[in-house]
Amino acid sequence: MLRTPLGATALVLLALVVLTAIIAPPLWGAQADATDTGDLLAGPSAEHLIGTDNLGRDLLLRTVVATRLSIVLALLATLVAIGAGLILGVLPLLLGRFLGRAVTWLTGIAVAFPGLLLALFFAAIFGSTATAAVFALGLAGAPSFARLCQNLIAGIEARDFVSAARVGGIGRLRVLFRHVLPNIGEPLIVNATIGAGGALLAFAGLSFLGLGVQPPEYDWGRLMMDGLRGIYANPLAALAPGLAVVIAGLAFNLTGESAARSLGLSDDVLVTGLARVRRLRRTRAVSDAAAAVARPAEGAPVLEVEDLRVDFESTKGGVVHAVRGIDLTVHEGEIVGIVGESGSGKSMTALAVAQLVTSPGRVEASTLRFLGVDLQTAGKARLRRLLGTSMAMVFQDPMSSFNPTMRMGDQLAEVATEHAGLRRRQALERAADRLAAVRISAPKRRVRQYPYEFSGGMRQRAMIGMGLMVSPRLIIADEPTTALDVTVQSQVLDLLRAIRDEDGASILFISHDISVVAELCDRVLVMRSGEIVEELNASDLSSAQHPYTRALLAAVPHMATDLDRPLATLATVAAEEERAAGARDAAADIDHDHDHQEVGSR
What we know:
Shape: elongated
Mean pLDDT: 80
Structural class: alpha/beta
Distance between the termini: 102 Å
Radius of gyration: 34 Å
Number of domains: 2
CATH superfamily of the largest domain: P-loop containing nucleotide triphosphate hydrolases
Low-confidence stretches: 264-294
Helix content: 55-70%
Number of strands: 11
CATH architecture of the largest domain: 3-Layer(aba) Sandwich
Strand content: 5-15%
CATH class of the largest domain: Alpha Beta
């Protein structure tokens, strides 16, 4: 902060305010309370720079001494607002759909009321004291802070690294402290410091109205009210406390803004003691229980899906059918590809299998079984253990798949500490080993780095390494090569193939690039508009029967593509298919008529 002009100015200004609040009362408190009946309501002079009040007390000294009470009360009100707002802000994440939505509605209603009106309302209820004013201002500021928290949490909750944590079986409370709060820390700091500056002004306003600090105590608001009576005779009596409010508020606001730019929040600070105790108490029984369900029964598929449907309630009424009754089977050691254009339902199918479709989405299936366990009826504890140890999810965007505030080693280690019973040091060693397994150089150094220090291909491989922290039986790779260049893409495909060969894991590979699917997969499912239109072996793609599959194949450019013609699209290929089909039908009709003529002549 000291290296920037803004930070240096803010810290100096805040230091002056805090130093004044600390030393002013013991140094000048007695002088500020000393009365002089011979010098009442005096104007500015060499002895009293901004004059005296109706008891002859020095107004400058009283303004300086009032710094402590004004700052302390404003900070207390800010803490009440932050505490209440943070509780209301995180409740929707912790309570789930229905209760969380009720909290959100309640917060929205409270935000609709002006903060000053709420403060006056609470002040009228609690009474005209400094303590009552603290709670009145704190509760009045809580709704806006809660709404900010809810909006920030909603944005982070939709990120891939939170979804990955949930696939890994991380509980809501740990997701909150480990992944959500560290990522919303900076805007909360800025808002809190702005709130402190606003609380100074608001508290001064309440005291000015007689609803805050009461005599014989005094703060800047009380001094302004007293100075207003003689503002025409001595304007400085009211302006000096007001200027003090502005300076203190500016100090808090500038400090908060510069701190948010300069300081990084450590996720370890936010890990609660309870979470640490739980982690230390984990035993090898966790991994033993996972091993008991780590393989399907002899000959049974790893994943079995029948009549899977994913529906969403439309905002205009009615239902949107994202996935429409698909059947899917993945056997042990098999790589199955799902291919189709954007919006065909590929990723939604993967999310449904991983139990990541949330409200307003609705998942239904005749059969949805993973490693012999019915995912629709299994209890939460069993699902958490099963999905956290036996299923790995590799998302499309490697940057959003990792928490930017956590080191890579910590993110990978969390899987092992949560599900394999390893201590932190053991988990970090395994994280380095897994990074080496996915061909990342210098893994011991890489575990101490942040996601932004990894290239796109390295992040994608690290995401695969996270899935290998335990022993997954199914890896769901949702377009893992989309954002990568062809060289890195080839490396990722080779890595997935090696994982299948060495560990025997099954892979559900999702892509819009049919050429990539043909290179990697054993079987291919072609999806369009939420349905599977064709299923065939990857080696048989060249002889696909469905027009849509042939259109996907024709849309892929190759070395013999005519550069003078526009690249093929699904629409143009489908039109050519229709014209070709029409030509074949016309030729068939001609042949048929010719045969009839021959028969008639005979």
